Amino acid sequence: MNDLINKIKFSLVEFELTKLDTRWKTENFHLTQPGIPFARLYYPIEGDGYIMLNGETHILRPGEIYLIAPYAPVMVGCARRLVKYWGHFNAFILDSSLDIFTLAAPFIRVKDISPEFTTSLFNILSRTHARHHKASNDSLTEIEGRSALMLLLVPFLKTIQEKSLSGKGFTRFASLLAYIETHLPEGLTLQRLAEFTGLNATYLSNLFAEKMGIPLMKYCNQRSIQRAMDLMWSGKYSFSEAAYGAGAENVTAFSRLFKKHTGLSPRMMQKRINASGQVF
Description:
By secondary structure, this protein is an alpha+beta fold. The protein contains 10 helices and 9 strands. Helices cover 44% and strands 21% of the residues.
């Protein structure tokens, strides 16, 4: 686990302090939650909001910091008023586009044990990586923002580490996950993954499901969909190109899988990505 954490590659997108009202809700983002490829940090300082996940409602309130994983199927909103710092970032592992928080819980909350210090870190990020801030070539500015983010993420990474030490984490599958990331564009089968690990296919599938909480091939399909969305977010690829880049053998079949996973057709997803400037 320590080796994975030491090799995380952080990508900072944007950070802001925003005052919100009842207009802040998922329905106004123009994009369903499974289509958001960034991890999100929320730090409320006044008022309250909410996150809905799997039928449960979690209240966003001062005194806690919240992390929503990339592609997490959550709904968010505000009943009256909410003032919060928020940010988009990714924490890539295994020299790939796999975010470490994608493998953790879709939603994590931690207690804010030092509000003054936490606020200072968000202020740094809001200064160095604001939405409309002109990109800087200043290496020191990048180091400053990256360091602030790393300090904010320590309690969340500790949560993942504790889960790993209990035997329920993903670190035992690190080499397999790396193999999947590398060979995803080629299309993967359970037999091929079993041969890579040297394990019986049925045993591997059952072990992965037990420890990761998701069947192995379902995980591969999920990563294919996410890889396709990553390519679509880049603005450089059509859906067909993104599908083949994610390992699809048949674009029509992949399109059906895509809609089943995201709730949107590829065409509609692309339209919403193009109009998704207000996800926060």
